[in-house]
Amino acid sequence: MLKYEFGKLDNGEGVGWNEPTTVIFSHISRTLVREAMQNVIDATVTSPAIIKFSCFESPAREFIPDVDNLIKIYKACAKAVEDNKYAKERYERSANILQENENIKILKISDYNTTGLIGGDREKGKGGSFYAFMHAVGISSKGVAAGGSFGLGKWSLYASSDLRAIYVASRTPESHVFQGKLRLVTYTLD
Predict the structure, then answer these.
(1) Rounded distance, CA 16 to CA 68, Å?
(2) Angle, CA of 186, 188 and 190, to the nearest 5°
(3) Which member of 49, 64, 108, 115 has the lowest number of beta carbons within 10 Å of its beta carbon?
(4) Residues 104, 56, 178, 6: what is their CA dihedral angle, to the nearest 10 degrees?
(5) Alpha-helical runs (H) found in the chain
(6) In the chain, how many H helices and how many E strands?
(7) CB 9 within 8 A of CB 76
(8) How many CB atoms lie within 10 A of CB 34?
């Protein structure tokens, strides 16, 4: 069974609702499409590269792993931001969506004839596109000439998600990887 893992804060920086990586984007739907297309252009192996956007709905518990734990996490986030009415309501709404097993809208972005996300192993992945996409902030595995070379466009995915969550799968000849990631405020679980 898939489980959520979060790094300990220790002496690191706390994260609030207005985290820059998720609030820098305006016109989110246009930005999301542009950023996804730029990633495909930068990773093209053979022409034509193909990108497909599909949207569907699914009961939350059929798509999202470890829902009961995630409900606790969203409730802890709501408690952590109780002085911010909007943020608190968003986290409470996320917990309720999962608790009531409501249908969630899912945007699936698929690409073909591309390199895929490589470097999925955390230890060996540094410098790989999977590491840069899922584990790094402000780091790009692309060359400076690439259109998406700042490592910022991926944040449009989180900004467009009501749950501030993404799930990524990549299949290359060398590996198959799947991972989810959430951009949440700093919180404490009781």
Answers:
(1) 23
(2) 165
(3) 108
(4) -20
(5) 20-23, 28-42, 60-63, 67-80, 85-99, 129-135, 155-159
(6) 7, 4
(7) no
(8) 15
- Quick: pLDDT tens for 25-82: 666 777 888 888 888 888 888 889 999 999 999 999 998 999 999 999 999 999 999 9
The angle subtended at Cα 105 by Cα 101 and Cα 108, nearest 5°, is: 125
Task: With beta carbons less than 8 A apart as the criterion, state whether 30 and 96 touch.
Answer: no
The 10 Å CB-count burial string (b at 16+, else e) for 80-97 is bbeebeebbebbeebbeb
> Which pLDDT band, with edges at 50, 70 and 90, does 152 fall under?
low
**CA neighbor of 173 nearest in space, from 134, 118, 111:** 118
168 φ/ψ angles, rounded to the nearest 5 degrees: -125, 130
Identify each DSSP E strand in 35-188 by its residue range.
50-59, 103-112, 165-171, 176-182
The pLDDT of residue 9 is above 90 = no
The length of the chain in residues reads: 190
